[in-house]
Amino acid sequence: MPWYQIFQDGPEYEARRKKTTFDPPNVTIKEVHDAVPNQLFERSTGKSLYYIARHIAVTYGLYYCGQQLDALSFGKVGAPLLHRFIRLLLWLFYWGWQGMSFAGIWALGHEAGHDALSPSALVNSVLGIVLHSFVLTPYFAWRATHRAHHKATNHLDRDETYIPPTRKDLKLPDGRVAVRMDYVQALEDTPAYILFKLFVRQFFGFQLYLIHNRKGNPRYPRWTSHYNPSAKLFRPNERRSIILSNIAIGTMIYIISLWIKSTGWSYVWKHYFGPWLMAHNWIVTFTYLQHSDPTIPYYRKNQWTFARGALATVDRPIFGWAGRFFLHNISTDHLAHHFFVSVPFYNLPAVTEAIKPVLGQYYNYDSTPVIPALWRSFTSCVFIEDEGDIVFFKNKYGEALIQPRIPTEVSAM
């Protein structure tokens, strides 16, 4: 691929964008289910443990390589400032790859949260709480809201993960009278401020969501937290598991504190917190791009169905082979995952191929490279309208790429 094409939209995105109108799908869950061979639903504890062990081995291997950076010496050749710059680049390179590996640990915990690692609920819970606690994610709390997200994907009243701001939320003028300059005055930000917001969202957004429901469903009170067992996010019978998650997080923090006491803050920063922050960057990237795109609809209750919500998903080959190896197909085959949450990740590529003929034009794939795709969504997916049963994101000029054609009735799906 020529270098300049790295910054171009993928042809699949261009094809969706050029349609300009959208007919909501009427694919049924039965049609999709019948296309998948039964053996792909089978979960193997042994196979999952193999993938976990392989991932841990790679993570340790990267950690070993990172330790060598501490001892790296440039001798007396060149300027000290150049040495520091090269060393910083090497640490950033290490954090990027080790962060990818940490994100893969989170992705494996995600699989456990869907009971996809083993037929045993207990095995899934044990693996999930260990994997997620390592990257400071409260496993049972996250699992509760994430399962709710799957039950109401892109439903503007019920989805848990991300509800886009509306015209009213942003205090924008009435769309029937607003002109382009009205939006520019209200929404225009400097490039530096846009980059600052993107930085905060990428590196801290997930933890802020866990701490106080940042960008989550606004129906909850302010400062609703995944760490509060009594939060309205959870059912009463989930409170004990939320407490268990908090104990696990506390235990991990205690282990990290002992590590700091033993090796020093600088060492733990370089080998844990640096990769941990980069992992959050990768986690936010693939989770945001799964459903937030100018060509992907959101639904209100009169037009939402489970199948339509599942189809409001984009498969992306994020980082190519590295994304498949480290992230366990969480981005490349996410649409299939939304239809079949308990199918193990190693079977999802085959499921994707099996359901493509059934989904036809409603299978969403985008080969746009990750950085331009992220920038495109962050700058183009600004708000949605307060009215309408099917809505698409509008940009900072109040423009949507696609307009829905709403049918008179919704078939059962």
TrEMBL record:
One of its GO terms (biological process) is lipid metabolic process. The keyword Cytoplasm does not apply. The chain crosses the membrane at residues 88-109, 121-142, 242-260. Residues 90-364 form the Fatty acid desaturase domain. The keyword Transmembrane helix applies. Keywords: Membrane, Transmembrane, Transmembrane helix. Pfam families: FA_desaturase. One of its GO terms (molecular function) is oxidoreductase activity. PANTHER family: OMEGA-6 FATTY ACID DESATURASE, CHLOROPLASTIC. This is Fatty acid desaturase domain-containing protein. It comes from Amanita thiersii Skay4041.
